[in-house]
Design brief:
Blueprint (H helix, E strand, L loop, with lengths): L1 H19 L7 H22 L7 H23 L1
Helix pairs in contact: 1-2, 1-3, 2-3
Keywords: Cell membrane, Membrane, Transmembrane, Transmembrane helix
Protein name: GlsB/YeaQ/YmgE family stress response membrane protein
InterPro entries: Transgly_assoc
């Protein structure tokens, strides 16, 4: 169940980040990968800053989307 939950959250967070960063999404598989890595980055970022975030399903999606936006922003710096 944990793997399915991570895939679902990753897909939603990656899709949301792709739309927020004007990327329009990258397809289901890459959205899942970016969302899962974004969740790790978001959790690390919030823990480092000492920010307590919303817990639960919505909090996981927001944390993943924010982390994925950070990843996409950094990737866009290298793309130029």
């Amino acid at each position: 169940m944990g793997l399915l939950y991570a895939l679902l959250i990753g897909a939603l967070a990656g899709w949301l980040a792709g739309n927020l960063m004007k990327g329009g999404g990258f397809g289901l598989l890459l959205n899942i990968v970016i969302g899962i890595i974004g969740g790790l980055v978001g959790n690390w970022l919030f823990a480092t800053l000492g920010i307590s975030f919303i817990e639960g399903f919505i909090g996981d999606i927001l944390t993943g989307a924010i982390g994925a936006c950070v990843i996409l922003f950094i990737a866009s710096l290298f793309k130029k």
